[in-house]
Design a protein that fits this description.
With 444 residues, the protein is of the alpha/beta class. Helix content is 40%, strand content 20%. It has 15 helices and 17 strands. The strands form two sheets. A 15-stranded mixed β-sheet has the order 5-4-2-6-7-9-1-10-16-15-14-11-12-13-17, sandwiched between helices.
């Protein structure tokens, strides 16, 4: 039995007995009546909040997976996927704009003019920082008859307080063509997004159909017309994919990631923009203690970069707050003896934006979700476990090159950093009931 198959069995075994099977159906089937859908959602939310973490990931086998590293590989793959679509294209993104967004919009418009069904779903805030001209690309889409909707963030945590709801974002990044081919991962489809060191995957096969189904559910939650998901795509390869989500109906990213960390036997390599999710940190420490080789590579450039907008970047670096969100995790990892490095920009990449882990050289964890409490508890996110040795080998080589040639070892934390880390842990517990920092939505 493969790693993904074992994972499905393990997570399903923890599912709550008698869990409402309606949670597995596509959300709001009766999309013709938005009021009815909203009432149904409200009625189900109490039960959902208790069982969403127990819903297994969407599983698929028979996929062909191509690793994509940085803009040189990601953007051609996105454009190729759109241009070769025959029937439909769905795009969902957090950031979407600038020349990058316009190039993608042009490709979408061409497919719309060819008679295809084209739909675009975006974060209503379109990010909170950056100089991208989002509206030009969006206006062009609308002018050519493409329906553009925004995800209703209040549906993610309707019972949460104002601050938690205010910080919520639709952070998913994906493009699906014909329910058969998809590109998904962490890169924002904007000029600021492509300046970061980042990763996505191109998948052909049933995994793309699962992303299509997921998009359709989000589309209906956003008030769009119901569209039937096509039959599962034919097998194209040997890769097995588990698709986990943080959404209006599912919260199963943490069980997926922790289960994979727990199953590691030889090595875990992590590259992350941010890391504060306490279950992840504890699982990494537990793996290290049982003899697994664990390495963690974090970014320390994004916060100063965005703080420069108010001329505070140098001060953040001087005070050691360039890694502020990660301070609690860094302290625990280093105390446990786990090596931590900081990414050094290279080849025109301003900072590390990855959400990537490679386990035992066989399994890849990748998606839109940062390794944070904010991502898994508050945002709309996707995250995948890919059981494919070839993809893991490619990503593993990139991580090794970054570790050896584009990183520096983290120094012991100063007294001030330790105090800030303790304060952030306290704040996180007050807001989220967990142990990380929320000072990172801007760079997501």
């Amino acid at each position: 039995m493969g790693v993904i198959s074992k994972l499905a069995t393990r997570i399903a075994a923890h599912a709550r007995a008698g869990m409402d099977t309606g949670l597995e159906r596509e959300a709001a089937r009766s999309a013709s009546s938005k009021a009815i859908a909203t009432q149904a959602y409200a009625a189900d939310h109490v039960a959902l909040s208790r069982s969403a973490k127990n819903i297994p990931p969407r599983m698929s086998a028979g996929n062909r997976v191509t690793p994509l590293v940085d803009k040189q590989q990601v953007l051609p793959a996105v454009l190729d996927t759109i241009r070769n679509a025959k029937h439909s294209v769905q795009l969902q993104s957090y950031l979407f704009g600038g020349k990058t967004g316009q190039a993608i919009a042009d490709a979408l418009i061409e497919r719309k003019q060819a008679g295809l069904d084209v739909r675009v779903l975006l974060d209503p805030k379109l990010g909170v920082v950056g100089a991208d001209d989002h509206q030009a690309a969006i206006n062009a889409l609308k002018a050519h008859g493409i329906e553009v909707r925004t995800f209703p963030l209040d549906r993610l945590n309707p019972d949460a307080g104002w601050l938690k709801q205010h910080r919520a974002i639709d952070h998913a990044k994906l493009v699906v063509a014909d329910g058969k081919v998809a590109v998904a991962g962490g890169m924002n489809l904007s000029d600021t997004g492509v300046k970061a060191h980042d990763y996505m995957v191109r998948m052909e096969g049933p995994g793309a159909t699962n992303l299509n189904r997921m998009f359709n559910e989000d589309w209906e939650i956003a008030g769009g017309e119901h569209f039937a998901t096509p039959a599962p795509a034919a097998a194209q390869g040997d890769a097995r994919i588990a698709l986990a989500e943080s959404s209006a109906t599912r919260r199963n990213i943490v069980p997926l990631v922790v289960s994979q960390f727990d199953q590691a036997q030889k090595s875990i390599d992590v590259e992350a923009l941010f890391l504060d999710q306490p279950d992840y940190v504890n699982a990494l420490i537990a793996a290290h203690r049982r003899g697994v080789d664990v390495r963690v590579l974090l970014d320390k450039n994004a916060i100063p970069l965005y703080a420069n907008a108010v001329k505070a970047g140098p001060l953040m670096t001087k005070l050691g707050l360039d890694v502020a969100p990660d301070l609690p995790a860094i302290a625990k990892l280093r105390a446990a003896g786990i090596p931590v490095h900081y990414y050094e920009p290279h080849d025109g990449m301003d900072y590390l934006h990855g959400k990537l882990a490679v386990i035992d050289g066989k399994t890849t964890l990748i998606g839109s979700a940062n390794f944070t409490s904010q991502a898994v508890e508050n945002n709309r996110e996707i995250f995948m476990s890919i059981d494919d040795a070839s993809a893991a080998h490619t990503f593993g080589n990139v991580i090794q090159d970054d570790w050896a040639h584009h990183s520096v070892e983290a120094k012991p934390l100063s007294w001030f950093q330790r105090r800030i880390g303790s304060a952030l842990t306290w704040l996180e517990k007050r807001i989220y009931g967990s142990g990380g920092s929320q000072a990172k939505t801007a760079a997501s």
